Amino acid sequence: MSTIEERRLGARPVEPAGPLSELVAAMLSGSAAEPGRLRAAEPVAELSAAVAEPLADRDLQLALYLCYELHYRGFPGIDPEWEWNPDLIAARAALEARFGEALDMAVPDEGTVDPTEVGDLLFRLEAADQGPSLSRYVEASADLDQFREFVVHRSLYQLKEADPHSWAIPRLSGAPKTALLEVQHDEYGGGRAERMHSTLFAKTMRALGLEDAENAYLDRIPGPTLATVNLLSYFGLRRRWRGAIVGHLAMFEMTSARPNRRYGNGLRRLGFDPEATDFYDEHVEADAVHENIAAWDLAGGLAAVEPEVAADILFGARALLQVEALWAGHLMDTWERGETSLLAPVAPVAA
C-alpha cells in the first residue's frame, strides 16, 4: 500500500522518518481509547536527547508536527481523541523540551529588555538581520521547478494562515488584543472567504499545477521547513509564550512586504498572470500596513501592559529570524548544488 493510500485510510498520517516519528505515528494509527496503546514519553525523551541538530532533524520535527497538527484540522481517519490523550501529550512534551533547548542555544538570552523600547528594538532587529536573501534569488533567478518547491515548502503554513497566531487572541486583552484582531481580520479576508490568505495561496498552488490540500506534500518536507511551522505552534499553544507568539507575528509582518513583492515579481518573470500572483500582491499591500500595527500597537502595546513578557517578545522575533535563516539556507544550498530542496522532486499534477 502506498503512503498516500495509507494516509487516506487513516492507517498513518505520513511515512515516519525515524524512531521518534515512528513512535508517534504508531500511536495515531490506533484508537486513543485503547488502554495501554503505547506509552511513548520515556523512549521519546531518550531518543530526543540523542538528536544532534534538533532544528534541522526531520525525525524530531516530523514527530512534533504530527502532534501539533491534531490541534488544527488533524489528519483524515485519525481518532480525534488523540488531541488531548495524556500519553501523546507526554510524548509531545518530551519532544518540545528538546526543541526548546535547541531554541535557547540558537537564540541566547540577551538580558533585560526595557518594555518601552520594544517597538524600536524590533525595527533594529529587522534592520540588522543578515539571513540569506532567498526572496532576491526567487525574484531574479529561480526556475519554475524551484518556484514550485518554494511554494510546497511554504504550503504547510500558508494553507493554515493565520491560525497559529490566532491562539494568542484569548490570551491578550485591551489594546494589544484589538491590534491583533485588526491584523488577523485582514489575514482572514476581511469577512470574505474567497480573500482569506490561505485561500489565495491555494489558488497560487493550483496555478502552479500543485495539489492544494493541507499536508499533501508532507512526505517531501525536510526538517528545517517543519521547524518553521512547529515554532508557531510551540509558541501559540502556550499562554506562557504569549509574548513570543506576538513577537513572532510582529517580525513576520515586518519582514513580509518586500519579499512578497519579489516573489510576485518572480512569478511574473516566469509568465504567470495576476490570478497566480494574487497571494503575493495582497501581502505587499496588507503587510506594509500591518508592520507598524504589529510592532507598535501589538508588540509595544503588550510590553506596556505586561512588561514581564517584553523579553519574550524579542525572543519570539529572534527565534523567527533564526529558523527562517536555517530554512532559507537549506533551499539556497541545495539549489546551488543543482539538487532538489525537498526529499523528492515535485511534478505538476494533471489538470
Question: How do you describe this structure in short?
Answer:
The chain is mainly alpha-helical and 351 residues long.
Q: Can you give a write-up of this model?
A:
- This protein has 351 residues and is mainly α.
- The chain has helices at residues 3-9, 19-28, 41-49, 58-69, 86-106, 118-128, 134-140, 144-158, 163-166, 174-187, 197-207, 223-236, 242-254, 257-269, 274-305, 310-336.
- It has 2 domains: 3-106; 115-336, Heme oxygenase-like (Heme Oxygenase, Chain A), CATH 1.20.910.10.
- The radius of gyration is 20 Å and the shape is globular.
- 46% of the residues are buried.
Give a topology summary.
Layout: H1 3-9, H2 19-28, H3 41-49, H4 58-69, H5 86-106, H6 118-128, H7 134-140, H8 144-158, H9 163-166, H10 174-187, H11 197-207, H12 223-236, H13 242-254, H14 257-269, H15 274-305, H16 310-336
Helix pairs in contact: 2-4, 3-5, 4-5, 4-12, 6-15, 6-16, 7-14, 8-11, 8-12, 10-15, 11-15, 12-16, 13-15, 13-16, 14-15
